[in-house]
Amino acid sequence: MSPLRDDALAYAGHQVHVMRRREVGTLLSWAGDLHGRTMLDVAGGDGYWAGQAIRRGARAVSLDLARHKLTFGSRLKHRPGLVEGDALRLPFAPATFDVVMSVCAIEHFDDGPAALAEMARVLRPGGDLV
Question: Which has the higher per-residue pLDDT, 31 or 21?
Answer without folding.
Answer: 31
